[in-house]
Amino acid sequence: MSLPVRALQLGESESEELERNLWNDRFVPAVMHTNGRSVPISVRYRGGHTRGYPKRSYEVVRQGQSFHYNAEFDDPSMIRNALSFRFFSEIGVPSPRTKHVRLTRNGEPLGVYLEIEGVERKFFRRRGIGYSSLFYAVNNNADFGIRNPETNRNKSSLMSGYEHRAGDARERTRLTAFIRGLNERTGSRAAAFLNKRLDVDNYLRWLAGAVLTGNYDGFEQNYALYRSRKTGKFRIIPWDYEGTWGRNCYGRLVSSGLVEVTGYNHLTRKLLEHDSFRARYKAILGRALQGPFTERKIMPVVDEMISKLAPYIREDRMRRWSYGEFLGEADIIRDYIRERRSLVSSAIRKM
């Protein structure tokens, strides 16, 4: 099956404005041709350090829904985000849908991109999830602590690591009260507070996903936090998992033991201080090792993704990595799974 094409069409003035706005987040109007239709859109560049790369990533809003078109420039496999989100879904954590596509801009081929569903209104509607608030964790101040991780001084605002995306001002108060409360309480009071305000099962499944895939950058940022309308509890969604499965977010090979099995951030530490929460986490990890996190389950997905992309990766002249390096990625991911399973199994026995 061929990869679908997403064709961006920008006017000359809009293209110039997009370049001027490289490091801010202003959208410009454009048109996207997709599935035989032409749809008016808004488009901007997205990402952090990746905006300086020759193959840039985009955010597109079409028909009221946000899509991210990731160049995955640092990932020689082009599949780590897609594979990670698929794995999260397997262990019961709502995750963005993804699709590999070919992207063009004003008729110029830009190569293979990963289309990622934005976490916003339609994400929740599609899954039948009611939500009262939504926050994006955009920097490492989203570590659930009350002190700045770099200066160790009290944060000027407990919202400093978050972008408020949905919900009224009272939701900001609820989130800051949650962060303050989990830091101020200890012992049984802390456990009762967390059970009341946090969907603990969802959080521990998310923690297991971040730990098993090895996302070092996923604990203090790169997640979405929302409050369930039904239960009133906070729940978490993964985001940006390019640096996983044996490579970091810059594409460098890293040790399979880089990420501690207990993860890290203030909320995780608070949870795992309690025997009951720790036992639940161990059980979630154990079940993952018995099924979802196995070579038998994951490698057929890897091989299918690699095979589907191969003809288009060979032709993509905008990539940082060679075609040969791309073909070797299945072995790197397989080795990572083997090593990570062994490390996690050993750590579970000691927890």
Radius of gyration: 21 Å
Q: Order of strands in the sheet with the most strands?
A: 1-2-3-4-5-7-6
Head-to-tail CA distance between termini: 46 Å
- The general outline is globular
Secondary-structure-based class equals alpha+beta
Oligomer description: single chain
Q: Helix proportion of residues, in percent?
A: 25-40%
Please provide the ordered H/E string of secondary-structure elements.
EHEEEEHEEHEEHHHEEHHHHH
How many domains? The number is 2
- Specify the biggest β-sheet: 7 strands, mixed, barrel
- What share of residues are in beta strands? 15-25%
Averaged pLDDT: 97
Q: Compute the number of strand runs.
A: 11
List the uncertain runs.
none
* H/I helix tally: 11
Molecular structure report:
With 351 residues, the chain is α+β, with helices and mostly antiparallel strands. The protein folds into 2 domains: 95 residues, no CATH class; 162 residues, no CATH class. Helices cover 40% and strands 21% of the residues. The protein has 11 helices and 11 strands. The strands form 2 sheets. It has a 7-stranded mixed beta barrel with strand order 1-2-3-4-5-7-6, surrounded by 4 helices. A 4-stranded antiparallel β-sheet has the order 9-8-10-11. A hairpin with a 2-residue loop joins strand 6 and strand 7. Helix 4 runs antiparallel to helix 5, helix 8 runs antiparallel to helix 11 and helix 9 packs antiparallel against helix 11. It is globular. The model has no long low-confidence stretch (mean pLDDT 97).
